[in-house]
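Progress report, Aim 2. The chain analyzed during this reporting quarter is listed below.
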Amino acid sequence: MIAVLVLGHLVAAVAAPTLVRLLGPRAFLVVALAPAATVVWAAAQLSGATDPRTGGLVQSVTWVDDLGIDLAFRLDTLAWVMTLVVAGVGALVLVYCSHYVDDDDHGRVSVLAGCLVGFAGAMLGVVTADDLLMLYVFWEITTVLSYLLIGYHSTSSAATRAAKQALVVTTAGGLAMLVGIVLLGHAGGTYRVSELLADPPTGTAVTVGVVLLLAGAVTKSALVPFHFWLPGAMVAPTPISAYLHAAAMVKAGVYLVARLAPGYAALPAWQFTVLVLGGATMLLGAFRATRQTDLKLLLAYGTVSQLGFLVVLLGYGSPGATLAGLTLLVAHALFKACLFLTVGTIDHATGTRDIRRLVGIRQKMPWLALSATLAAMSMAGLPVLIGFVGKEAAIAALLDPADGWWSLRGAAAVVVVLGSVMTTAYSVRFVWGAFTDRARPPVGKPGPPRWHRPTWVLVAVPGLLSVLGIVLGVTSTTLEGVVEPHVVTVSHVADAHPVHLGLWHGVSAPLLVSVGIWLAGGLWWSAQARRPVEVPVPLVPFDAGRTYHHLMRGLDRLALESTGFLQRGSLPVLLGTIFVVLVALPGSWMLLDRTDLPDSVTPADGPAQVAAGIIVVAAAVLAARARRRLRAVFLVSVTGYGTAYLFLLHGGPDLALTQVLVETVSLVVLVLVLRRLSGRFPDDPTVMTRRLRALLGAAVAVVLGGATLVAAGSRVHEPAGAGLAPRAVDYGGGYNIVNVILVDVRAWDTMGELSVILACATGVASLIFLTDENLERVRVGLRKVRGERGRPVRREGQEPSGMPWIPGGDLVDQRRRSTILEIVTHLVFHTIVLWSVYLLFSGHNLPGGGFAAGIVAGLALCLRYLAGYGAELRAALPVMPPVLLGTGLFIAGGSAVLPMFFGSPALRTWIADVHVPLLGDVHVVTSLLFDVGVYLVVLGLMLDILRSLGSGVDSQIRAEQSAGADRTEEVSR
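Predicted structure tokens for the chain:
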């Protein structure tokens, strides 16, 4: 069921753009059903998840069978608590967004809706994953989605800079975490989290692996020295901050610490990392928060401080600290989400978050002021809220450190008390700055903030979160019973006294310390209120954010210098360097070691092969000697077609077909590119240079030929090809071995190649459509064509000229128009498309498949483009290439995941022979769905190339010609 819930979030994320177009901002209410359903399901699983005898609910589906990787989920006590936090707060934030966002930009709103619900699904995967590799996959999904969410305002340089900063920092930690996962999994002989905790491995490699895992947690949870990315991420809309930085993204690192603590909290390296970095983060974040005038930045630095506090507690290693940490984890999600959403409502209503400008908010929004005050009280640890219960438990757990006050744990206790004092101070500062009425000093002489009354949802959602804080505070003893199964697993450090949750334990030392914290915090705030400071004073002698920017600048400079030194912009130099290394290293090795050469070599298998070889060699030599670009392109194409003929001679019709199609596409692309280049190659090498190049080319040929001979002579096992034919039939249900390998045997490789194709298409398009104006022009053209389907496309007021053989023919300049080509296109276009469909469906048993079929369909589009240029291409297929690329990748991925719902490994093929009326017996394989995805991805790539290098370059040429004509006209005047 957990996998179904994760998939439900994915479906909601994919459907979000369509829902936003149909429903506007109310689409957030629909996608909120996914996390809401997760909350309901998790609540129903309370008894099973918290049962210590079973260890929680376990679900496992084989993912990559050969590698032993499973989609293993486990809902135990910790995962249950985190699931409620992630899904519950996520659902409320999505409901809040339905009244927060404007209905004027469906594109950005759909991105927000899709990414938020997708993030909730990824976080659900993180907290329930029982396999470290699967946890890492979900972990990195949250990294990518957080980049998109933080950079929501894509036209803002500050937003893009903050998004890149968060991406770089968290990705660096993620890479370190991946190395740690491999080390830990290798040492333990398994990647199952439950097994690694039940029987923790030991050794230096394990210690290094755990520290690297903590590096991922430190960067994700914005601990010192990587804390700077979180305040920078406040450029995102406030609902994003409320979710990512209160209940989701930053909680991933805290969760990882809590998850690994039962097995590894006793390691000295763990204690040093967790207590030192967590304590430093708590102090630094709290100090910075006490000096902010922007409510959102105040909460951001407060979040940094609280994250350090949580890491100290959950990594401390004692049952009492773990109990307090889990309680404060829930409390922090509630009060921080409430406060962030409160700031969002204030900003939405007034247009400012500056406490120096806010006046009269309490009178205008009394219920919002009440809920925010309750949340701030919970943050400060005041009764009767859940924050008070958790903080008092934390003080009780840390007051009597087992190693003495002069130990690391003793220092952690002092840091927690001092950090709590500053937490009280900035909690008071938040309420005082947002809701009290007083004289405001002018700040740059701004006008009064605008005001409009927010909808009831923008007040009710924060109010509900604050009420939950009271309810959990009153019923905290019940919460203790729920989390007890996880608490007892963390017992590396014994508690000096039993720690329990509750509102009243009598007049005790923790209560007296709490009272002292409140008084000291009030005095701290009072002292700052009398002397307001607008610029925070650094607590440490260096600024981590500035250090990061200097480091990035240095890397950019290093990349620039390295590129300038190595990439001279000369293709002969680059190729020459590669070829010299190829000849020097493998060539010298083959000269010194001749033991693997075969005893006899057959020069050729027949005259046809000799003839093909002569043609290929001759074309290659002539291409090297050609001084005109177009001639060289055609000669190189001859070598490709000759290679296809050799494939055909050796009994590989599928390879031959694919090679011919790829060579044709390459020829088209090169011809399109040549329009922007001069007719001749610019360099004119000397005779000596030509001879050296010829000698190097011959040496490369000899080395590669020798490598082929060595490879053939080094074989020690029987060729695998003999067993592929029967296995292709039994395993994949097809007689085309190549296609079965692509979509069945090595389908994971094909999935990776599809991603590469998508990246290639994105790169090609980005080189042409560098500005939003270019993309918008394409979108407008597509919308116009969709509204005129079936009718010839003409300019406004234009009369038809003859028979409209193609819809866009009348838009072509008469001097460039070819009636014969239009007629041929009209006659053969649909036939070519039909042939591509035939290749798609027959490719499992005959030459073809999704890749070849997609290229054929792309060549049909190429014919339409050559006949009518950009307008004809839009009329032929009026969709944006990313739609085809994304749909194809989604179908391929869906076909991979589908078998897992029926207990089979991913990408398992099912074979069936069914009788269809009129058609007879039909052989059906489910891998056809995967091939359909390949077909759409390749077609999307072809469309992207034609849109970019074809019609995109056409637009640039027309713009240059128009600019040239204007300049000529000005000169003539």
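The longest strand covers residues 57-64. DSSP finds 37 helices and four strands in the chain. These observations will guide the mutagenesis work planned for the next reporting period.
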